[in-house]
User: What shape does this take?
Amino acid sequence: MSKTPHILVVEDQPNTAEMLTSYFEAQGYQVTTVAWGKDALAFVEKTAPNLIMLDIRLPDIDGYEVCRRLRAHRRTEHIPVIFLTERRERSDKLTGLELGAVDYITKPFDIQELRLRVRNVLRRSSLEQLSHPITSLPTGSLVDETLQELIGKTDWAILSVGVHGLKEFADTYGFVARDDVVRAVGRMLNHIVNEMAIPSAFVGHIDDTNFFVVVTPDKANQAEEALNVRLDEAMTFFYPRADWEARQKDPNVELPDMYVTTGVLTPPTKAYANLIEFKKAIVAVQSRH
Assistant: This one.
């Protein structure tokens, strides 16, 4: 994995939570701990971890309900869940697996065995996550391979697109509305590519909120103009109608400032040294129109 895997530990026993945090951080993982089920759900609305270790007995809602809610939303349905529990009954294990958990480990557990299980789950997950969970556009290694092929070539242009203010937008309207915005932008890009008949175009994600489209140099500016026209038309529909109309009547009505930036990147005189430099350049060309 190119990035440090992020584990969310949902455990209300301080000693267990501290032990898991210390151990897995020492193994090179990023670890976040919460003690309540609702805190776990609030956390994943803003940040999607690579893996969740989930205790079943929690002070508010149980782990089964947390897992059930995770699986109910497209943004979080793909996150692997490992149940950690004192329950040893076969029926409890079957319940967890039926909810989509990838593993079920009873306490007390062998920390070395847990480490290997975590490693294996993350390896499988990284192989499966070649497309974005919201837009289904390419991400990860598929994007890296495409960009790597462009380094050193001069017959390309990239339309770069970034969506900003999504955290504040989600805080007000929820992460489902946030995901609808990301999904809509991805669809717009695909539609533009299809309408312009660019057979060799590649649409993908740099990260969760930054998109890019590889096109021929003669199509880049036209594609950017077409996208900005569609975004201007669509922006009003991203907000609840009552809120948008209230803003039109009274400019002092505050709405979360969610907006999109675009830009076109052309080949540099000197080839990029690596993918990190290339990706930074893609995002850097964006500006607000």
About this structure: The CA atoms of residues 180 and 238 lie 8 Å apart. Residues 141-288 form a domain with the Alpha-Beta Plaits fold (CATH 3.30.70.270).
